[in-house]
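Data deposition worksheet. Section B asks for the primary sequence of the deposited chain exactly as it was used as input, without tags or linkers unless they were present during the calculation. Section C holds the resulting structure in token form. Section D is free text for depositor observations; keep each observation to a single sentence. Incomplete worksheets are returned to the depositor.
Section A, Depositor: J.P.
Section B:
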Amino acid sequence: MMVQYLRRRSSWLSLEFYIATAGRTPKWYKRKKDHGKVAGCRIIPLSLLLGYVTFCHMKKPQSLARSRPSLRSIADACGISYQTVSRIINGKTDRHTPKTVALVEGTAAKMGYRKNLLARGMLTGKSMTVGVMLPYYINRGFNTGILQGIQGELARHDYAALIISVAGTKEDITHSHQLIERRVDGVVFRPHPMGESDAYLHELMRHHIPMVSVVDIEQSLNIPLDFVGVDEETLGRTAAEYLLSLGHRRLGFTRIGDARFDLPLNERYAAFVTAVESAGGKVVSTPRSQSADFDAAAVEGMLSKRNRPTAVFCSVDDIAFQTIEVAKKLGLSVPGDLSVIGSANYEASRFTSPTLTTFDLQTEEIGRQAAQLLLRRISSGNVLRSTSRIHVAPEQIVRNSASRIGDLSVS
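Section C:
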């Protein structure tokens, strides 16, 4: 009788299947006698039969290394030189015709080719990674926008982000060591407001790692740093000019303080006061505070005075939300009796009653420009001749929490 033999081999797996009929037992099939015989044939369990059928329809397996497309395989598929494919894949397309570039890029996409950045890093000495250190649980909306901008820009240059949540503890130093040990090419960071772990920044500088800050607190760190962030002066001036244009002359501001995280706010506040006083108005603010928490008593005291402000500029949206609640508690309608504007353009500002007039801080643009500046610093070899300072102007978002009133005398 006829015996069919099937054998398939690969570099990582060898399998042999034998099918026997007319009562002959396959070499690999050793079972007890109780399987019985039917018409002179061995009964093979259904699971084995299905396995055999599945294997017969499998494509010949290849090693993982051989199955991954390479520049050489793309060159073979296109019928052009390896050097041409290498130049085009690495963005050097100026020496080749659009037709050749389209051919290489189309073939690479069809074959599922991905660049080997690890191999490139061994040649260039760059890891193609950037550390991002943010106090993620503080001002999450701000940090999220920053991170989106950074990641989007890094991806355009084949860089990846290693994200660290700064906690303001000694663990931040451990995290900085992890970035150093992974040979990140640079770091974008926002220091923790409490400043309990600034040693990690000095550690990064000691290893000559380029850094860009997205919060302007250079004076408190005593470190020369590149900076990309909110244009606080423009923000304070624009807020004042907007409320003045609505006829308000007695304006409130909350909140300011002496802590390190208040340094940018103090710049905003100074610009706000200058613009108001230049127009003949007056600014009333809540007392300076060391805490970032909302001081309901201070706001209530400011709004309970006989000569209370008719409009309040709040340093951040969540303080504006709570200021509106305090005003309602005092029987003041917003914006009828009191205009309130915020800063940050949190998602909730579109759903409050009334919806909040605020400023979008352009955090995604800040992140994008911070990544651009860092990549320029990396490509230049981190030669620190002078620091760069880039201020991104905010965008005003006018909604329903501020309204026009008649001119008021200043007492």
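Section D:
The chain has four domains: 4-56, 68-116, 126-230+365-392, 232-361.
The chain has 15 helices and 16 strands.
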